[in-house]
Amino acid sequence: xxxxxxxRRTRLRERCTAAGNAAALVSRPANVRYLAGAAPRGAxxxxxxxxxxxxxxxxxxxxxxEGRPDENLRVHCLPGAGGDPAVAAADLLTAQGGDSLxxxxxxxxxxxxxxxxxxAPRLRLTDLGTAVEQLRVVKDEEEISCLRIGAEIxxxxxxxxxxxxxxxxxxxxxALELERRLVDHGADGPAFPTSVxxxxxxxxxxxxxxxxxxxxxxxxxxxxxxxxxxxxxxxGRTFVIGTSPADWQIELYDLVFTAQRAGRESLAxxxxxxxxxxxxRQVLDSAGYHEGLPAITGHGVGLEIDEDPQLAxxxxxxxxxxxxxxxxxxxxxxxxxxxxxxxxxxxxxxxxGGPELLTITTKELLAL
Length: 368
Known about the structure:
The chain is α+β, with helices and mostly antiparallel strands and 368 residues long. It is 33% helix and 20% strand.
């Protein structure tokens, strides 16, 4: 793994050098972890002129969710808890003879930027932009393996919940049980707050669980994900509770399933982001559900649950192989409920079998 992290830092350094910067300060936690193997709270990574350093406050506390730092990367610990790692990193660069520093300006606060200017006035500060995020879009097989294991954990947790009695239990209770099951099966924790939505709440993207109880005949929408070694996946399914589905529920479910399948089948290297969105959205538009649709059909996943690329109507760019994304169309009918189906897949060329489905819980409309 040390060689892997070193290779990632080398790629970033090459970008910095091409832009005329000899050093970079990485402060966004997911980016620090990508390049250093770990992201202790508040830590920054300095790609220095003579040496790379992970700068943090206090000694390591070995929390597994933070990851393990690259063993070949020196960790510089500030003596007290009140120090500023970014300012300390600028001081260290000055001591190395550095004269320019590229910053993640989209992450640093204005106050931190001012402190850097006051402490190291001779450093030329420039914007690193989203260089690290761009490197993170295409995943290596180690990263995909972590996502695959996370997806297996989420599938297990969801499968066990479906075997339990659901009627009469609250959305909040079911969400907490799912998150406990994720940890029981080896997850670092939930990849994001688990969403459980019943009846009129079902099908709403990002619904926060309430004390509403599951009733006979409800749609039940569940969206959850596992974080495993920092990598985050996502799965969403919709079911009918306790009885045979009504005709309107079957029709709506079949429509969303058709849209989701169209989105999944359009995933291929070279496919435009907006074309994937269009493939799913057109199915729903043609059925008269153009109003109230989610702003995006899907998004990238990795060290964060919502990464580039964005599969949206105005998104620019094309998919590469080994890019994991979600495909998650949905329809919500106010006062009645709705359907959302969500999978995590990895873009693969047709010669390798096409998109790799990581979340494999059945998409059949089950009556529980």
